[in-house]
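sry for the spam today, last one i promise. struct tokens for design, 580 residues
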């Protein structure tokens, strides 16, 4: 710091850091730290360096307002009342592409002020002209504020915070593949998609003077997100959308609410219609999470706005939503008179943490910004624009909104709703078959399948590739015959040839097999010079087919009690040998 007594010429750097306020006092910072269990848990997100970005000399969007806001928050000592303060990492390209097109994000990552001449065609295609200029570190700026909103949404999903604040977010005009209204990446849509992974229903509230068209368009077809926007609507005021009749479509029909207002609305009228509409909406929709966009261009004396709202009324909207005790994500948005924007968001930070702060501003290095208003937190901002709204027009809007809410018939279920992007990819592994998983792992069991079930009804025949009793008889090795043949040496050949009860059943005609014992007995009786071949022949009687009656069972019992024939006798074998 260079003091005035040390400088030879008067420059900005030689001026004192702090103004001499004279009779005007200043706020003492809060020193008492919050008790973690006494209030709802509040997390505050401020990406490092986000306030140093610059759209251009004459552009109304000034990210420097974020630096002023953070200076006032720290100057009041509100950081002692905030449970967690984070400087989150920037969002990755994959996270941005959860909503935005790949080609659009690729363009944002490549375009710079130096190569914009060569990329003129793509600049026109993605609408990066006039309102959305190309400036240095533009892509990094988008990653910063989008990363903060995503981190805040994840914190809410984890249940480790009740209120998450990111004043750098809230850029609600960006489309899927197009920049719009000073917005390049729609961090609100990305945050809501993150919330939908855990929360079944999300309510989005927008109190920016401009219609939140980007968010409404993203969720126009779903009933899991209800969008409510309070904005100025004349038909030609940017972005030109947000009529009262806009309803949503498909599953999202009646889940899109717009409250079009005219110039000059004051605190009483705004708070009346805001509280009425939001209370009815929360009662009907029953959200499990709320996203509140706090665009400060709805304040009086804004560079681009035309309302007459005070900072206190703007903060009362935030306080009203906070009292629902629903997980709340609070974002910034528009606001182009930066000294009023920083005061508004600082006051709303105190409302969210439940701290009371004085009207005098704390001493900061930015005192010169507030010299004109005598360093007050609540300067007079109302009464500059004539109020064109009437009680009758607001009542007509309220009745129309209530009629739409009647169609909801209770909060929607999410049993068969579409899964948010990239969750489907994660769950795709669960839908693959076991064989596909084995092939991916390259295991030895890949391609092996369980044999088909050969158990069939008793009144059916088995006819398949593995039919043991097929018409074409095969020779049976001796080892298999000895293992499968259950009959002892004294058992008749016909009885030994049959399969034991309970084994695989054959088809209609019985086909016996010569047992190993019979073959051995034949070899002993003969000269053993030429062993008789083991062969299978067709039996004379009915085999062990399906549906044997009582008579068949009686005959089988009689055969079992008969005296066995001599060993060389064969009851069921053809006397003439077959050529093998």
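last one done:
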């Amino acid at each position: 710091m260079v003091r005035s007594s040390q400088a030879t010429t008067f420059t900005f750097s030689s001026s004192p850091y702090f103004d001499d306020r004279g009779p005007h006092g200043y706020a003492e910072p809060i020193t008492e730290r919050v008790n973690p269990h006494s209030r709802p848990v509040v997390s505050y997100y401020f990406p490092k360096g986000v306030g140093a970005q610059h759209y251009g000399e004459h552009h109304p969007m000034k990210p420097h307002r974020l630096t002023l806001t953070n200076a006032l928050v720290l100057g009041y000592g509100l950081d002692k009342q905030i449970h967690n303060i984070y400087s989150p990492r920037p969002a990755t390209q994959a996270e941005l592409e959860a909503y935005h097109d790949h080609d659009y994000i690729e363009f944002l990552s490549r375009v710079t002020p130096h190569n914009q001449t060569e990329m003129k065609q793509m600049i026109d295609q993605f609408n990066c002209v006039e309102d959305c200029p190309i400036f240095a570190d533009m892509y990094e700026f988008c990653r910063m504020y989008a990363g903060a909103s995503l981190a805040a949404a994840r914190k809410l999903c984890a249940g480790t915070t009740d209120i998450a604040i990111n004043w750098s977010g809230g850029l609600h005009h960006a489309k899927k593949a197009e920049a719009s209204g000073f917005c390049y990446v729609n961090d609100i849509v990305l945050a809501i998609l993150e919330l939908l992974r855990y929360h079944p229903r999300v309510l989005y509230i927008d109190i920016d003077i401009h219609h939140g068209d980007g968010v409404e368009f993203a969720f126009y077809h779903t009933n899991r997100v209800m969008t409510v926007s309070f904005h100025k609507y004349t038909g030609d005021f940017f972005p030109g959308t947000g009529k009262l009749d806009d309803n949503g479509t498909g599953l999202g029909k009646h889940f899109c609410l717009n409250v079009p207002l005219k110039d000059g609305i004051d605190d009483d009228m705004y708070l009346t219609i805001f509280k009425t509409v939001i209370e009815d909406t929360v009662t009907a929709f029953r959200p499990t999470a709320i996203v509140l966009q706090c665009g400060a261009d709805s304040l009086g004396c804004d560079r681009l706005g035309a309302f007459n709202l005070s900072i206190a009324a703007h903060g009362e909207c935030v306080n009203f939503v906070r009292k629902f005790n629903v997980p709340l994500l609070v974002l910034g948005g528009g606001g182009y008179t930066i000294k009023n924007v920083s005061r508004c968001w600082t006051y709303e930070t105190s409302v969210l943490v439940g701290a009371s702060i004085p009207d005098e501003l704390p001493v900061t290095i930015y005192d010169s910004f507030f010299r004109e208003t005598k360093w007050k937190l609540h300067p007079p901002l109302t009464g500059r624009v004539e109020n064109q709204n009437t009680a009758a027009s607001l009542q007509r809007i309220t009745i129309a909104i209530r009629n739409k809410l009647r169609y909801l018939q209770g909060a929607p279920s999410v049993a068969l709703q579409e899964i948010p992007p990239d969750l489907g990819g994660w769950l795709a592994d669960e839908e693959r078959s076991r064989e596909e998983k084995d092939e991916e792992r390259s295991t030895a069991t890949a391609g092996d399948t369980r044999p088909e079930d050969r158990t069939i009804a008793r009144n059916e025949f088995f006819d398949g590739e593995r039919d043991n009793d097929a018409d074409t008889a095969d020779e049976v090795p001796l080892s298999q015959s000895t293992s499968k043949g259950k009959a002892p040496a004294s058992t008749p050949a016909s009885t030994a040839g049959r399969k034991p009860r309970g084994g695989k059943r054959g088809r209609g005609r019985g086909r016996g097999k010569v047992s190993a014992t019979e073959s051995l007995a034949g070899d002993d009786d003969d000269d053993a010079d030429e062993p008789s071949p083991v062969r299978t022949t067709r039996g004379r009687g009915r085999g062990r087919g399906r549906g044997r009656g009582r008579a068949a069972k009686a005959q089988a019992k009689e055969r079992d009690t008969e005296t066995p024939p001599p060993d060389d006798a064969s009851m069921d074998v053809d006397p003439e040998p077959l050529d093998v």
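DSSP finds 17 helices and eight strands in the chain. ok im logging off now
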